[in-house]
Specification:
binds coenzyme A; Peroxisomal Thiolase, Chain A, domain 1; alpha/beta
Length: 328
Amino acid sequence: MGIKILGMGCYLPEQKLTNDDFTRFVDTNDEWIRTRTGITERRMAGWEPTWYMGKEAALKAIEKAGIAPEDIGLVVAASATSDFHTPTISCIIQNETGAVNAAAFDVNAACSGFVYALDTARRFLETDKSMKYVLVVAAEALSRFIDFEDRSSCILFGDGAAAAVIERSDALYTSHLGADGSGSHLLYARCVNVAEEVKVESDFDDGFPEKRLHKLYQNGKEVYKFATKALPKAFTLAAEKAGITPADIDWFVPHQANVRIIETAAKNLGVPMDKFIITLDHYGNTSSASIPLALCEAIDKGTIKRGQKLALIGFGAGLTYAGAIFEY
Ligand code: COA
């Protein structure tokens, strides 16, 4: 059983941060950021909570899909930067969009989150035939966790949200979800709570080197190495299940972390770069929102057309990786 994307929507905060803007906080420059990452600017949430960005994207997706929100059976939201430990942003979005008959839960698989959420949604559609539509949302406010004193990581990230309404179809679908928890200490942001403070103050070595509360920490070089292998792996493991080769794919929609990571993955897969949708130059790395934002933009521009085969491939903290191949 496959899926059909009926409509997509996205939300981007108005505030832009250019590479030059970062020279105000850290010792960096536009040339370094562009050549090492491919990023020129990114959006930063101001007053907008994460759920608000997700809700705005979801409302547009529902409108484009042309469905009644009451017919949505499930809201799955991917986020690594939720506003609350509880409730989930999916519950807030369920209420805000009028999806009154939907179950709602969040998925946190970091930057692989949208693919995890989409794949989970498909499994619900397959096993519960009373469910007509699923709303899959990814929303992130990374700016609230970025360490603006760390020049090697603060320049990478941006905020935004995107959403899709899906239904079941008879078309092709294959996927693979993976994780390697041995790399969990390579990219993380601690929860802010009393227990953590006690733990950090007691010098308990939990294996996570950066002790400062709640800021995002990454070992850039190790994450880079993982990412260049994870992208081709996520694709290959999903593709093998359906006898698909890279040549069968019309568009690769990768997680938008660093253009050099995507170039290496493209080379390893033997696929030209012009088959990869790239938005990281203007949005940076928006974690779970990056793949659906790229997808949404390419659909809106008419680049991705109905009937074309897509490969969504993600990787992220956890460490996680995920691939989903289906027809638009
Ligand atoms: N501006 C200027 N110089 C910078 C800089 C910045 N923003 N950030 C780091 N540098 C410096 C370093 O301090 C280092 O200086 P040194 O040689 O004097 O020590 C030099 O640039 C090279 O640093 P290095 O870490 O080797 O750069 P890199 O080419 O590996 O690029 C990343 C760094 C972070 C861009 C890269 O490792 C990366 O993209 N990693 C993956 C991160 C990621 O995708 N995370 C999210 C995954 S979902």
